[in-house]
Write a structure and sequence with these properties.
The protein has 293 residues and is of the alpha/beta class. Helix content is 45%, strand content 10%. It contains 13 helices and 8 strands. The protein has a 4-stranded parallel sheet, sandwiched between helices. Strands 5-6 form a two-stranded antiparallel ribbon. Helix 7 (134-145) packs parallel to helix 13 (246-267). It starts with 5 loop residues before the first strand and ends with a strand.
């Protein structure tokens, strides 16, 4: 029974799909699916159910799973520690305002929240950006797995310097570096949602079907339905998402300022770019960098 050597724990909306696609030819990954959701939702099925996803793994190739929902679920991380005590962990942090807005779009995409504006949804679901408590979650990871076994990356680096970002991860995983010049299929696009669902009830039902298919390892069916455009029909086709207004951006940056400062202290990193409100044109922030040496 083989289990992962490395797990990317997220949080969601930090480029996990891009990373999965970048690594999948260099390591062993779950058969026919990006993430199994075992540690978050399906642990009751037993560790053998999880190991079955890696039954195809051969030789001494590293086994990796990218499952971003684990980051903000301490019980899931403890299950990893129980079953894979020597597991290495990859975590990616992102500008909390950008990530929270991306989570809002994901939740609407899945039909989890209603069709209200961002401000209305935040008022109804104040914990929408709960995974933005980066410092506390990372400290827990360091305690469970050892700081030397946890690689913290920054989403801004992926957008600004994807090759350097990927090199760090490949070195940590212990595989040959992947040259992006030979992978034109990756591009620079990051998985995102441009439009809201046209019908929330239909989107929610589609999400329930996807969860059921995942629980029965019916990944081929899920992929076939995706290629046929079923999920896009159910979870898209609605209004385009607007940019955050400068006023929304400023309020959210003030809200997350204590979290950003705690992360600066934990990682010895300058995150000034995450503290400054953006202008109405959606100006990109300067890429934060971890202090080296």
């Amino acid at each position: 029974m083989r289990l992962p050597d490395v797990i990317g724990i997220g949080p969601p909306r930090t480029g996990s799909t891009w990373l999965y696609n970048a690594l999948r030819d260099s390591v062993e990954m779950p058969a026919r699916v990006k993430d199994t959701h075992f540690f978050e939702h399906f642990d009751h099925k037993g560790i053998e159910w999880y190991a079955d996803h890696f039954r195809h793994a051969t030789g001494d190739r590293r086994i990796v799973e990218i499952c971003p929902g684990i980051f903000f679920r301490p019980p899931a991380r403890e299950r990893i520690k129980l079953h894979i005590p020597n597991c290495k962990i990859i975590a990616t942090v992102r500008d909390p305002v950008d990530r929270m807005y991306s989570v809002y779009k994901l939740q609407r995409h899945n039909g989890v929240v209603g069709n209200g504006t961002l401000d209305q949804v935040i008022e109804a679901s104040p914990n929408l950006g709960g995974a933005n408590r980066y410092a506390a979650q990372l400290e827990s990871c360091f305690e469970s797995f050892g700081r030397e076994n946890v690689l913290v990356t920054i989403y801004d680096e992926l957008r600004a310097e994807p090759q350097a970002y990927l090199n760090r991860i490949c070195d940590f995983v212990g595989v040959a570096r992947v040259e992006l010049s030979s992978r034109p299929d990756l591009g620079s696009d990051i998985n995102s949602f441009a439009r809201a669902p046209k019908n929330r009830r239909l989107a929610r039902r589609a999400t329930a079907v996807i969860d059921w298919l995942n629980s029965h390892q019916a990944y081929r069916v899920r992929l076939a339905l995706q290629r046929a455009g079923v999920w896009e029909f159910c979870q898209g086709r609605g209004e385009a998402y607007p940019r955050l207004t400068p006023e929304q951006d400023e309020r959210l940056r003030e809200r997350y300022l204590p979290e950003v400062e705690a992360l600066e202290k934990l990682l010895a990193i300058d995150l000034s770019a995450w503290k400054k409100p953006r202008d109405a044109g959606g100006r990109e922030s300067r890429t934060p960098r971890v202090a080296r040496g």
